[in-house]
Task: inverse folding
C-alpha cells in the first residue's frame, strides 16, 4: 500500500523542505521522459505481466538505475495483483495503490492527456516508477544497495533510510525489501539456467501417491472431500508436503519462483496452461512436470489424477518453485 509518510513529514521541521524537493523532483523526472525511457537490460518473463500493461512496465521500469521492469512489476503485483480497480480498506486506489494524499502530490500525467487519473494505469504505472526513482535520487548518497534503499524509502520514508544509513531496522521494512526483490525474480526473464529445486523430489513423490484419485472442483485433499483434489489443490498439497506453502489458485502459483524455458524443464517444475498466452492472471490449469514431456495433474471433473502431456497449444510456461519465492507472494491479490 502506498504510504502516507510524505504527507506526515510536512508537519514537522525539515520535513517541509524534503516534501517540496520530492514533489518538484517527481515532476522533473516525469517531464524528462520524451519518446520513451532507456532500454535497460532486464526483460519481463513471458506473460508474467498482463499484455495490457507490459509495454508500460517495460518502458517505465527503466526510468532510473535503481529500478527495472521486473522490480516495478513485482511492486504492482504485490500492491494490487494488476487490478486497476483495486481499493484497499485504507483507501489506497488503483493498480499502484496510491492513497489520495500521496497521489495529489506525486501522481503524474503519464499519457499526456491533460489528466492525472489514479484509476488509469497509463497514469498510475508511470507515477509509481517516477515516485520510486525520485526516492532513489533522494537517498542516493546512503551507503549500500541503491535498490534496497529505494524500496526501504518507499516503505519507511527517505528520512529513516538516511538516519540509519541504509535499510532501517524495522521488521516491516526489511520484510518489504526482501519480498519485492524476491518477487522480482519471478517477473524477470531468466538470462541463465534456473537452479534446480531442492524440494522437487518430495513434491513429485506426493503427487505420484495420488495417481488414480478422482478430481474434485475446489478439492484440497481433506478427509471430508474424500482425499480428492483439483489441479491447484494437488500442486499446493504436493509442495506443502515439502514444507513450501503455495497460494491456493494456479495463477498465483505462477509467481512462486523463476521461470525456466521449455527446454530447461526439470522434474518438479510447475507447468501452466491458459487460453490467453499473454497474461499469467488468466492461467486456468497447473500440473507438476515429471520429465519426458509429461506432468502429473488433476485435469477435470470426471477424470482422475494422471499423467498428461504438456506440449499442447495452451501451454503457458513453467515455474521452478522456491521457498523464498512462495513466501514472498501476497496473501491475496
Result:
Amino acid at each position: 500500500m502506498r504510504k502516507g509518510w510524505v504527507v506526515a513529514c510536512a508537519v514537522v521541521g525539515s520535513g517541509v523542505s524534503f516534501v517540496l524537493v520530492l514533489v518538484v523532483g517527481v515532476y522533473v523526472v516525469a517531464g524528462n521522459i520524451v519518446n520513451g525511457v532507456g532500454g535497460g537490460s532486464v526483460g519481463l518473463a513471458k506473460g508474467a505481466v498482463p499484455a495490457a500493461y507490459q509495454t508500460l512496465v517495460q518502458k517505465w521500469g527503466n526510468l532510473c538505475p535503481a529500478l527495472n521492469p521486473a522490480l516495478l512489476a513485482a511492486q504492482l503485483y504485490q500492491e494490487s495483483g494488476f487490478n486497476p480497480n483495486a481499493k484497499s480498506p485504507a483507501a489506497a486506489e488503483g493498480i499502484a495503490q496510491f492513497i489520495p494524499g500521496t497521489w495529489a502530490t506525486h501522481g503524474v500525467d503519464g499519457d499526456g492527456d491533460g489528466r492525472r487519473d489514479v484509476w488509469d494505469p497509463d497514469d498510475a504505472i508511470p507515477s509509481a516508477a517516477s515516485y520510486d526513482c525520485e526516492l532513489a535520487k533522494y537517498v542516493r548518497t546512503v551507503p549500500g544497495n541503491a535498490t534496497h534503499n529505494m524500496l526501504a524509502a518507499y516503505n519507511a520514508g527517505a528520512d529513516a533510510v538516511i538516519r540509519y544509513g541504509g535499510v532501517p531496522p524495522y521488521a516491516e521494512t526489511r520484510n518489504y525489501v526482501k519480498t519485492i526483490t524476491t518477487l522480482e525474480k519471478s517477473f524477470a526473464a531468466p538470462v541463465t539456467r534456473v537452479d534446480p529445486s531442492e524440494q522437487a523430489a518430495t513434491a513429485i513423490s506426493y503427487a505420484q501417491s495420488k495417481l488414480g484419485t478422482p478430481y474434485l472442483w475446489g478439492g484440497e485433499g481433506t478427509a471430508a472431500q474424500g482425499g480428492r483434489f483439483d489441479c491447484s489443490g494437488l500442486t499446493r498439497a504436493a509442495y506443502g508436503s515439502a514444507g513450501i506453502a503455495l497460494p491456493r489458485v494456479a495463477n498465483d502459483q505462477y509467481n512462486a519462483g523463476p521461470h525456466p524455458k521449455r527446454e530447461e524443464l526439470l522434474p518438479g517444475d510447475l507447468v501452466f496452461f491458459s487460453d490467453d498466452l499473454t497474461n499469467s492472471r488468466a492461467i486456468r490449469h497447473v500440473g507438476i512436470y515429471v520429465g519426458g514431456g509429461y506432468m502429473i495433474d488433476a485435469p477435470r471433473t470426471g477424470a482422475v489424477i494422471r499423467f498428461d502431456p504438456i506440449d499442447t497449444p495452451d501451454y503457458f510456461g513453467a515455474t521452478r518453485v522456491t521457498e523464498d519465492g512462495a513466501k514472498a507472494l501476497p496473501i491475496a491479490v
